[in-house]
Amino acid sequence: MLGFLKNPVVVTAEINVNLVALTVVGLISRLWGLSYPRAVVFDEVYYGQFVSLYMKRIFFVDDSGPPFGHMLLALGGYLGGFDGNFLWNRIGAEYSMNVPVWSLRLLPALAGAFCIPLTYQILVELHFSHCAALGAALLILLENSLITQSRFMLLESILIFFILLAILSYVKFYNLQRHSSFSGSWWFWLLLTGIACSCAVGVKYMGLFTYMLLLAIAGLHFWRMIGDQNLSNVSLVCHFLARGLALLIIPVAMYLSFFYVHLTLLYRSGPHDQIMTSAFQASLEGGLARITQGQPLEVAYGSQITLRNVLGKPMQCWLHSHTNTYPIRYENGRGSSHQQQVTCYPFKDVNNWWIVKDPGTQQLVVSNPPRPVRHGHIVQLVHGITTRYLNTHDVAAPLSPHSQEVSCYIDYNISMPAQNLWRVEIVNRESDTDVWKTILSEVRFVHVNTSAVLKLSGASLPEWGYRQLEVVGEKLSKGYHQSTVWNVEEHRYGKSQEQKEREVELHSPTQKDLSKNLSFMAKFTELQWKILTLKNEDTEHKYSSYALDWITMDTNIAYWLHPTSGAQIHLLGNVLTWASANIAAVVYTCLSLWYLIRRRRKIYDIPEDAWQLWVSAGQVCVGGWVVNYLPFFLMEKTLFLYHYLPALTFQILLIPIVLQHLSDHLCRSLLLKSMFSALIIAWFSSVYLVYCTFSPVTYGEPPLSVAELKDLRWKDSWNILIRKQ
């Protein structure tokens, strides 16, 4: 039985020394002196705020993209024991001792380092030589801009890592297609492709560009499979379903999971709550939840309510009135009804309270049992403090003359009768008998007499209206625009007919946990919509640039400046690498056109397998550059040089591909090959020299003198910071 112990157990492993060496050198280049400078560097001032909010479990909304990248940065803070207590208000501010700088910068640095072996593996899997793969990896290693971007608490290196991982996974999967379909390794690389794509999109929406590219390539490959007569229909269906699962379903599921974790972690109320709906706010601990806890769920006749406009633009506000009236005549000469003003007020105020009244009675209290208001019911809205009725009529609104004025009716004993009946329409109802509910129901108020809809115009009233927002009756309201939709935020059951007692906050009889009524999908949908539609005002930044400036690196970004010495950090690339990448792209394009024209004439300059290799490399590298660069010409947002880094990475991959192709197919003689190799060595040495030249502003040390800084200004458009003597 124990005979197998007579022989030693032998484990044989193949170790790619190139890969190991590249990984080690990459880690050194990215991790060396990672805590320096111990100060806030450029966009760390932006991402650090979100890390602090994660540490404190406070909800926030970032319109720049999904939460996965922020969570990875927060993971670094968590592993370092960060408590979130730091004021991220100024670039260059010194970090306090409680901030684990090394830990916060660790994950971006690791991602940047691992991009180097990934680059090597991609070219090997594309069937290029190990020499070409090594060259590509070294170019990424010596690219100053990628080093700078990966050494700080920023997201671009993490994004590029997942992009390259997705490319490598798909290429490995494709290479296994012919001989190992549906094997364990085949499934592993296919599933990893989908996972990496979802992670890339989850870090930044820029990852969507590469994801779309891979879907297109996968679709093209499957289209070719359909023409393969050796594959049965059942086999084709299985291949289609496997790709659908791995490249569509799993990425969507993972994307949802990022938001699930995000919303689970951030359960406390914070500064960004107010842009969310009342229902979302009520689901968070503290904030609105403290106000609404215990209030009745169903709105009844006699209910005291505040009405919040769902749109939330230009700011959140509540339906409001006060004793002041509209001017008899406006500055443009138009007249008004001189009725009591109705506005939308962006602050909590006692004048935001309204009473839901049954037009058939004079009662302003809730009966026992309460009579709930349902979809389609006719109500009157009585202003709680002034007891005047919400009214609209055929008088032009002060700032929106095409719409009706909304007011609280004052009886002046003139021929202007009250028109104060409103029909409640629940927009998000499930049936026509739905009850109007606190926070959860989104309602429109349709004027019975004129069919106008109560709407927030968004215009700011003049001084006579205290700069509050205009509310109008919109006659031609098509569809359910959010400016016409309102929801009850605070709610009490009225108990007294006496005006003074009514102004006192009333007892709430029943406690209702409204947060349980908002599902994850409802919260996800709302948060996703806010991320996509919330736009901060794009202001001109000192270091913003245009996409056309990036190709020739006519711009740079000063990330950090030492307060006393000449030490500074800039986002600047390796000039020679960028120029070579552009030349490689031009050469690839020209050669491809030449080959296509010649092949059209039945002239084949290179073997078929070399042509297929050339095309597949172009799909990945040129395609990756195109999809990650050209969309920025269509974007209306503030752009920076770092937006170009994913496209640049693909372009750098193209350099050794073009060089190997020229060496293999255009250098026919041994002499030409030797001369070409010598040129490549000289060129690579120059790349290294440029890297060394700019490394002081890549790593921030050693400090440079004024003369040395001036020598680094190779282009007039570069903004190298020089202190005045």
Structure description:
The protein is of the alpha+beta class and 725 residues long. It has 2 domains: 31-261 and 544-712, no CATH class; 295-510, Trefoil (Trefoil (Acidic Fibroblast Growth Factor, subunit A)). 43% of the residues lie in helices and 12% in strands. The protein has helices at 17-31, 44-55, 68-79, 101-125, 130-141, 144-150, 156-176, 184-203, 207-226, 233-265, 278-282, 288-292, 499-502, 520-533, 547-551, 575-600, 608-629, 645-665, 670-699, 706-711; strands at 303-309, 318-325, 340-345, 353-357, 378-383, 390-396, 404-408, 422-426, 443-447, 453-460, 469-474, 486-493, 557-561, 568-571. The strands form 3 sheets. Strands 9-8-5-4-1-12 form a 6-stranded antiparallel β-sheet, with no helix packed on it. α7 runs parallel beside α9 and α8 runs antiparallel to α9 (207-226). Mean pLDDT is 89; it is low at 505-516. Residues 296-359, 370-427, 431-491 form the MIR domain. The chain crosses the membrane at residues 68-88, 100-120, 126-142, 154-174, 186-219, 240-261, 575-597, 609-627, 639-659, 671-691. Belongs to the glycosyltransferase 39 family.
Q: What topology emerges from the helices and strands here?
A:
Layout: H1 17-31, H2 44-55, H3 68-79, H4 101-125, H5 130-141, H6 144-150, H7 156-176, H8 184-203, H9 207-226, H10 233-265, H11 278-282, H12 288-292, E1 303-309, E2 318-325, E3 340-345, E4 353-357, E5 378-383, E6 390-396, E7 404-408, E8 422-426, E9 443-447, E10 453-460, E11 469-474, E12 486-493, H13 499-502, H14 520-533, H15 547-551, E13 557-561, E14 568-571, H16 575-600, H17 608-629, H18 645-665, H19 670-699, H20 706-711
Antiparallel strand pairs: 1-4, 1-12, 2-3, 3-7, 3-11, 4-5, 5-8, 6-7, 7-11, 8-9, 10-11, 13-14
